[in-house]
Amino acid sequence: MYFLTERIRRYLEKAKVDKRGAVLLGKYASADGHADGRIIRIITHAHSDHLIGLRRSIAELPLIAATPPTMSIVEELGYDIPLNKRLILDYGVKVRIGDETLRLEPAKHIMGAAQVVLEDSEGERIVYTGDFKFPGTPIIEADVLIIEATYGSPRHIRPFKDRIEDIFVELVEKLLKINPVQICGYHGKLQEAMEILSRHGVKCPFIASKKVYNITKACIKHGLNIPQVYSEEDVESFDLLRSSHIYFTRRIKKIRGYSTVILSGWEFKKPVRELGKNTFLVALSDHADFEQLMEYIEYSKPRIVVADAYRNGSSRTLTREIYKRLRIPAIPLPL
Asked: Which of 31, 72, 147, 237 has its CA 20 to 30 A from that of 326?
């Protein structure tokens, strides 16, 4: 079913996802999970499902690599990486480890997110996309492509994805005329929401819960383009509560007199869905939908695709569709 020819087995010796969630790249590197005996652990971005086993990697491995924003966000999340183990990499900077070379390239997901590109001693290129979406993610040609599969089913298509930012802004502006607004979502997505609203000219104070505030300040340090954000713990922010404002939080809070906007990628039929009085779900995703996954694969031109089956998604469906539509051998890992 998964086309395990001798050639495919050879490629899978170079790149795979193991049962602990580590993405194994070449002989020396792992990404987004701990693997014993590796020289370097790469963090593609600072979401929890990509920080699996990080404390063990910090304790046992020589190097932990990430982009500057990701390293800062990881620190805000409570991970203490010794300075002598930090390998902070800007996009495009090549690092040689043994007889292999790796670099990080941009991924449009959350601030600091990266793809990993590894070239081995035989001149073959392994690409791990991490999590991504379009536009903003360059497609990299690969011999072996390891790709996320969050929305890997043909049912996971958002026909409104090119308009969702405008729809989101229009909803928030409409709600602000009536009540303050709380916006709920994951770290990274909340900062993206702040940037979208700022870019579209929404002018009101941004207030954030403590953890969201700390991560937002780390992102601002690395170029997040938003106006001043206030912590809910600041005296100044309490004064601002008397005026129209937006409150950003990881978890929904029951606050009288607020409208609530929940950001979720798990909505495909409508860009906005009303959940109750003054409560709305907006289909603002930071992942590629099925069409975008297939577009990346087609133009990457890999000899084999590995779909990440460790993290939530539709990896098995995706691999069937890859072979059916593109005639490229594909396998979900771990099996």
From this structure: 31
Residues 55-71 have a mean pLDDT of 98
Q: Where do we find the tokens 């395990």? A: 4
| In contact, 333 and 40? CB cutoff 8 Å | no
If you write DSSP's letter for every residue of 67-106 in order, what string do you get? -HHHHHHHHHTT----GGGEEE--TT--EEETTEEEEEEE
Q: 60 falls in which pLDDT band (50, 70, 90)?
A: very high
In words, the CATH class of domain 6-156+287-333 is alpha beta
CB-neighbour burial class of residue 222 (10 A; exposed 0-12, middle 13-18, buried 19+) = middle
List strands edge to edge, sheet with 181-184. Answer: 229-231, 206-208, 246-249, 181-184, 259-263, 279-282, 272-276
* CA distance linking residue 294 with residue 258, whole number of Å: 40
Query: For residue 37, which amino acid is it?
Result: G
**Which of 3.40.1000, 3.40.50, 1.10.10, 3.30.110 would CATH assign to domain 164-282?**
3.40.50
Query: In this structure, how many other beta carbons lie within 10 angstroms of the beta carbon of residue 184?
Result: 22
Do β-strands 246-249 and 229-231 pair in parallel, antiparallel, or remain unpaired? unpaired
Q: How wide is the angle at C-alpha 230 spanned by C-alphas 224 and 235, nearest 5°?
A: 165
Q: Report pLDDT digits (tens) over 162-180.
A: 999 999 999 999 999 999 9
Q: Are 70 and 87 in contact (CB under 8 A)?
A: no
Rounded to an integer, the average pLDDT of 238-264 is 87
Instruction: List C-alpha distances in Å: 82 to 27, 65, 97.
Output: 24, 12, 20
Tens of pLDDT, residue by residue over 82-118, are: 999 999 999 999 999 999 999 999 999 999 999 999 9
Residue 257 binned pLDDT confidence (cut-offs 50, 70, 90): confident
